[in-house]
Structure formats: C-alpha cells, structure tokens
Amino acid sequence: MSQLLANSACSSSKIGFQGVQNVITGETNKDVLSKNTDVFGSNSGDGLRGKLNKVVLAYSGGLDTSVIVPWLRENYGCEVVCFTADVGQGDLEMDGLEQKAKASGASQLVVKDLKEEFVQDYIFPCLRAGAVYERKYLLGTSMARPVIAKAMVDVAKEVGADAVSHGCTGKGNDQVRFELTFFALNPELKVVAPWREWEITGREDAVEYAKKHNIPIPVTKKSIYSRDRNLWHLSHEGDILEDPANEPKKDMYMMSVDPEDAPNQPEYLEIGIESGIPVSINERKLSPASLLSELNEIGGRHGIGRIDMVENRLVGMKSRGVYETPGGTILWAAARELESLTLDRETIQMKDMLALKYAELVYAGRWFDPLRHSMDAFMEKITETTTGSVTLKLYKGSVTVASRKSPYSLYREDISSFETGSIYNQADAAGFIRLYGLPMRVRAMLGKDK
C-alpha cells in the first residue's frame, strides 16, 4: 500500500500548489477539490497512473473485483463498466451483482448469458477434437476464458470503451487467456491488469483499501479454496491442496458425491451423437447447455469425473488442482467409444496426435489462433461420420461402455468373426506376415553371417 499512499501524497501536493495559484481568484483548496476531483481522487479526470476514458472490467462481485472498480477510477480517472458472463457458475454467484457493482463505483453492470454459446462453440469443439491437457485435464477454465473475453470485446465496442481489465493474478494462466483474446479480436484496446500493478498483496490489503474508499465489502464466507465454476467443471486449488502429498478432504467436493456414497445400483445412459457432437440423452434431444446440465446432475450423483492432478502452468510453475467434471467425463467417454467404430487406425492415430497440440493451444489461451481454427476444420471433417449412440454404465465413480452403434460403423461381423470367413481368407495371412516381418528376418540373418 506504500506506493498508493505515496501517489495520493503527490496528488495532494499538486492540489496544494493549485491553491496558491488560486489566491488571485479567491478560490480555496476546497473549491478546487470539489470542482476538479471526484470521490476517488481523480484530478481533472486524470488518474494517478494515466488517463483512460472508459474501462470494461470482468466482474465477479467478490472482494478483488469490488476493489478493482475504485482502483481503476483512482488510478486511471475512468468510468468503469462492469461485465459479468453467465457461463453456468450458478445463481448464488449472480445474485445482487448490479447493486454490488454500483456500490463499488461502477457506472453500470452488463450481464450476458453465454451458456449455450459456451457449450456449443467452445466445449463441443474441444470434445470433438479429444482435447485433454497432460493426460487428465478436460480444460474447463481454459475454454471459458476466451468466450468471456470475446464478450468483453463486444461490450467494449457497445459502450465505447477504450480499455478492458481483469482480476487475474500475475502467476496464473488466465491472464494470458484473457489478453491473447483481446489482442486477437481488438488489438487497439488497452489492457489493465491491477494485480501486476498495484501494491495490494493479499486479502488484508484489499479490505483496507475498500474501507479507505468506503466500498462495501462483499459479505460472503471466505472459502479456504480457490474455486472456478462453470457449466463444464468446478476446480479447486489452494489450502491443503498446495501440498501434493495431501489427500483432498471429503467435504471439499461440491458437484459430485463420494463414489463410496454413490448408489449401489448402476445407471445406464444412452448418449446420441451426430458428426462428433452430442445431441441427446436416452433419445431425448436437448440444447447443448441443457444436455450438459442434465449430465452434470446424473454424473454427480454417481461420483463421476473427479480428477486430482499436478499440472504444468503456462507461466512455468507446477500447480496442483482438483477438478470435478461429471457431465464432461461422460461425454468424453461416449465420443471416444463411438470413434472406435467410425474411424480407421491411421485416422485415429493422427487425430490423437493433433489432439495433444489442440489441447495445448486451448490451455495456453490461443483459442483464436489460426492454427487452432485450421485444426478444428480437420477435426470437423474427419468426424463427419461419427454419428450414432453409445450406452454407458455409471457406477460408483466409474464410466464403462455397454454398447455402441453407428450407421457408419467400419466394424463388420462377417469379417471379424472367428466363425465365418467368406471375405477374409485366413490363408492370406501367411504371405502378409512374411512381408511384414521381412526387416526382422533380414536383421536376424545379418547377425548369423557374422
């Protein structure tokens, strides 16, 4: 906070100097303050760090973003428009946001429901691509950031803002995901990242700053974990999870029951898929967001989709996180099982190789990178025939396949069966094996010659 206090002192010195100049006109320092500054100390519209006209802030209503609103006004002399994206984080996080935003000094709050867009245009393409980061992570937060940042760029255009801001820390991945999207969609926008600029280092500093500026502090029970929730997943970080040796506590989970406490009877579920995209549950067609919401509920009660991993952050450090992705885990299993029928060996191998790069691009915030767009076109093309249904068995945390069927199945019982062989002549295998094993025979012969 020392730098903030120092900047405030400099601002006061400027006003004092102005007071001397106003002796001729008879104006007092009080007159100057009331005429040239607002309640946040911005002198003649200029902030302590510069001047911006209007900033769109990614706003959650928590302590950090509540403090960022007055900080932006004080340091950049700007109007602040708060923006909240509904990506399925739940009603509790959305309640009372407009009142909180305006109480913090924002001129308005813009809320957009992005749930259907999020699932259809971000989640389902990743699912179709088979994108998984470092063997486990199904990219929940990674997919949500570009859809939010894109909406912020749209709102900035709508309200005439010249800058955008976010509350991401300088240690995380999200700062990169937000800002790469800003760069890709509107490179003219200025970006303000308070956590990389201010002297606030923790909760106590933020509370002190809020009290100093008469900003009501959100009255919520502070979680010991850092969480991010959307329609795809819920992530948990911090507290005891910072030590990879610690087992997560049972009461930490919120989307899924402990597999030990799940029903003792399995549940069968049929997922319908068209061209690599899920469309139905038990033959009921649903919108993308509705389908995922229902699967979250079903998977959650069976303890599906819990992942505990140590991952490599984009900024270089390792971090430990626990993820709950019940509906996503069900869909991922269904999509892969259907591909076993509809894709040949070479295509599956190439798809799996590209999926690794696809996941890396999404994790690194390069959603709008031309490479990802090109890879997505490839994924869309090769999954044109990935249409059919998969029946899965859900039981105490596990997802196993019960049946698969597709009108484009490459599986032929008359070829694969051990009982029949009108198309496949088993005697042909002898010549194939001799040719296929020729390099091994040559190498063995070479050894004997020596």
From TrEMBL:
Q: What class of enzyme is it?
A: ligase
- Annotated GO biological process: argininosuccinate metabolic process; L-arginine biosynthetic process; urea cycle
Q: Where is the Arginosuccinate synthase-like N-terminal domain?
A: 54-216
Q: Which domain of life is it from?
A: Eukaryota
Tell me the route in metabolism or biology where this protein functions.
Amino-acid biosynthesis; L-arginine biosynthesis; L-arginine from L-ornithine and carbamoyl phosphate: step 2/3
Q: What is its EC number?
A: 6.3.4.5
Q: Which keywords does this Swiss-Prot/TrEMBL entry list?
A: Amino-acid biosynthesis, Arginine biosynthesis, ATP-binding, Ligase, Nucleotide-binding
Question: May I have one GO cellular component term?
Answer: cytoplasm
- Which part of the chain is the Arginosuccinate synthase C-terminal domain? 225-442
Question: What GO MF terms are annotated?
Answer: argininosuccinate synthase activity; ATP binding
Known partners and oligomeric status? Homotetramer.
| NCBIfam families xrefs | argG, PRK00509.1
Checking PANTHER family in the record gives:
ARGININOSUCCINATE SYNTHASE
How is this protein named in the record?
argininosuccinate synthase
**What is the organism lineage in this UniProt record?**
Eukaryota, Viridiplantae, Streptophyta, Embryophyta, Tracheophyta
